[in-house]
Amino acid sequence: MDIFLQQMVNGLTIGSLYALVALGYTMVYGVMRLINFAHGDLVAFSAFIGLSVYAQIFGESVTSLVAVITVFVFTAAIVAFVGVLLERLAYRPLRTAPRLSAVVSALGAGLVIQNSVMLIWGPNMKIFPSNLFPSTIWEIGGIVITFTQVMILGVSSLLMVGLYFFIHQTKIGTAIRAVAIDQDAAKLMGINVNRIIMIIFIIGSSLGAVAGLFIGTYYRGITFDMGWMYGLNAFVAAIMGGIGNIPGAMLGGLLLGLFNAMITGYISTQWAETFTFVLLIGILVLRPTGILGETVAEKV
Amino acid sequence: MMNKTSLIAIALLVFMGFFPLFVDSAWLAVGTTFLVFAVVALSQDIILGRAGVFHMGHALFFGLGAYTTAILNVNFGLPILATWVPAVLVPMLVAFIMVAPIIHLRGDYLLVATIGFNIIFIQVLENDVFGLTGGPNGLFGIDVVRVLGYDFSSQTHMYYMAFILLGITLFIMRNLDKSKFGRAMFYIHKDEIAAQSMGINVRYFKLYAFILGAGIAGAAGSMFSVQYSAVSPEAFNVTQSIMFFTIVLVGGSASLPGVLIGTFIMFVLPEMFREFETARYLVFGIAMILTMILRPRGIWPVRFGNIPDFLKKGVK
Hints:
The structure holds 2 protein chains of 2 kinds. By secondary structure, chain A is mainly alpha-helical. Chain A has 11 helices and 4 strands, in the order ααααβββααααβααα. Chain A has helices at residues 2-32, 39-58, 65-91, 99-121, 147-169, 171-181, 183-188, 193-219, 227-241, 246-267, 272-286; strands spanning 126-127, 137-140, 143-146, 221-222. The longest helix of chain A has 31 residues, at 2-32. The radius of gyration of chain A is 19 Å and the shape is globular. Chain A starts with a helix and ends in a 14-residue tail after the last helix. Chain B has a domain at 31-237. Chain B has a two-stranded antiparallel ribbon with strand order 1-4. In chain B, strands 2-3 form a two-stranded antiparallel ribbon. By secondary structure, chain B is mainly alpha-helical. The two termini of chain B are 18 Å apart. The interface between A and B is large, with 47 and 45 residues.
């Protein structure tokens, strides 16, 4: 029972990281029908940016709330800028091109980001500073919860709830949903589609940046090519939930995190990915559009 | 137009035929691998370019062919010649079992499912199921092709075997274009719903494309394992699948010269720039983006030959 609860906590932690990254995939897909393969590499990139921002401003030793918030805000801003740049340079020229051309462009963009990270920070693993968060540990009935885990769960839930209300309650959120349903109709209603897509990339990249920083603080070791693995898991989460669906991405992320933790806790780590994809394919066989995905009739 | 293309094709075939006479062994090996990869890329093109099924796990079938030959030869001592048929049939069978339940999925879902199958395949190889696959190191010491006491063991032999395989593949694709199957796939690619309402069994033809593509990739895999006399999991991982996927789209999907150009650019050019190891993939990524922006339909886009000119306007 202890293992179960412990793996539950670990699973929810990883799951909320997946969910944050999955939101970036699902929002871009919802509006542009594009699998943004560069998103995972952007997440890895943000972990490295965070490392440098921290070293540059605070010089490795300072721990304070101000320092942590500064690192997160700076990193999110830089990564959001890169995300917008990515859309301008690699995706916008291909908006009317065949869909798979944009996918190749996204794969190319991923290669560019990943190898830029390698050239800037080197091919070896970098270690994230341990003192970003206090190393407090709580033991509740045999299960261990770290401060970092509480932060991850707290901040990502806040962000997700915030995003949900942003999408459903604000004017811009309504515009985003309108563009997702029909770009041309949205344009006719006076919505600036380019601006909405820019906002999508700002939000998606910032959430990815937060996830990247949390991956750094949680796992400590970061490598230039780790983005592929996190990106793939997050993308699977988005597909499980029903791609294009925002609550679906959150649900898919948490579900996949829990499932992964249970598999690694009870069965084996060697077969973790196999189980992930068996689950995915199982869900797709039963529900071809994901758990919360709607069946949309194809327009002729 | 037709004549010019055939002329280029003949010139290329003659050049490829005499290629081993001019080059050293390192470049001969690159040439052989180019031929093998071209076959895999063409078989990917049957699925992705012609039937229009989003498929990003093609290294799985390539690897299945390679491992079938390797396992039958190393573990069971069968001669290479006897492994050729299973190396084609096993990938076909696996493709059928794997894809039949999910062939109706929407494009992007299928894309991720095929990536998933590729990853499962790699984990099966690495975890050495039934002690057959040799784990992460793979299998070594694969035999050479022997026919009636003759050994076809040199690099030049390998080159010409791959050359013949490419010839057979091109012949199959050429026939495919002119057959009922090829036309059906073309219509499905252009407009699935319209094709369905014309009475084309979309599911059947997509599966057909998948199984045919898997079989050809399996044959190429068998050749690949004999060429290197070893197989290991990382030669067939998702990165390889992404490469085959990109080759087709960069070159021009459903276009024979396009796919060959794509293979050259994605495989032979990086071999030439080996010295620039570190920045190579950065430049590569930029080139991928630029190619797609400048030529969204690939470097050598397809022209479908059997449509009268007055109908072509609408067909992109």
